[in-house]
Amino acid sequence: MSAPDIHSARPSFASFAPPQRTLMGPGPSDLHPRTLAALSRPTVGHLDPSFVGMMDELKVLLRYAFQTENALTFPVSGPGSVGMETCFDNLVEPGDTVIVCRNGVFGGRMIENVERAGGIAVIVDDVWGETVDPQKVEDAFKTHPEAKLLAFVHAETSTGARADAQALAEIARRHGALSIVDAVTSLAGCELRVDAWGLDAVYSGSQKCLSSAPGLSPVTFSEAALARIKGRSRKVQSWFMDLNLVLDYWNSAKRTYHHTAPINNLYALHESLLLLAEEGIENAWSRHARLHRMLRAGLEALGLRFVVAEAWRLPQLNTVYVPEGVSDPEVRHRLLNNFNLEIGAGLGPLAGKVWRFGLMGQSCREENIILCLQALAETLNALGLPTDGDAAFASARAANTA
Asked: What pLDDT does residue 258 have?
């Protein structure tokens, strides 16, 4: 029997029509209608003069979001993971000692990046859900005075814990080291001041609190970081992420071809940054904090307990313990299928034990919180866990007007 001719049947599918979800997980977040519209604008060439002008505006807008004057500030073509690799591949050379703080999933990924770049990772561990302990970092530098870099996560997405970026960067400076900072979930969602805090290499993502389309990673590098990159003893291991090459494309004076940029995604990022500038960065931080208090009050009224202590809790990523006897996947399944509401599951040792509620960018809205509390109360009641939805709404509204 002869094999069927795979070329004889022409595939036949309908255009993809995604459901209308409310995104309250750890990312991506909802897109503003203006950002969605920007994605559909006519595509031009990546060296088109009109596009080049927009690229220059993007850099200015990103400097505002990062609160920096760093000339080397631009969006890497790729998700936050590519921004992370860009920082490590350019700043870590074989044999370099790097102190890495790990209190969640993404600190662990930093360790992977150090090792893949040929560096030696000195790991500072803290319990998942707790902040990074500055004294442990200080002790690590005393034990390893040869360390050239300190890497830490400002906003640990796997737990909802915030690190004291200013204090950690100051420790690194006192020991003659540069800092690499994961701000994927913090940029535009809580206070982040790159220049005032002395941060050297910071990477983020377009799909979290910036509420743009996934696929871009804003980065910024201090003059000290740039000097280290230009003074490397060997080429960066990644051709695509070698900033010595990429800079020639983002240099407004004379652009040279490096790769075809994700043109329409950059339109969307530009629009989302315009929205941020119109709102004002400090107003955006305040909005996330205010609506976090509203969500927190409602969740606590439903009997849910937060993982992270209040002093180090992220407003944009709220992690609570799954109540005893309740099925984590069943609740998330019902929220998605009955209410078109997405929330996040736990990762690593927290898998099956916590839920992660995102309040990021366009998703950080009062109506989303009301939907979330209503859906959660109805779902928990249906699964046999008595909850008082009316009390949750009342607590949430009171917190939002306090």
From this structure: 80
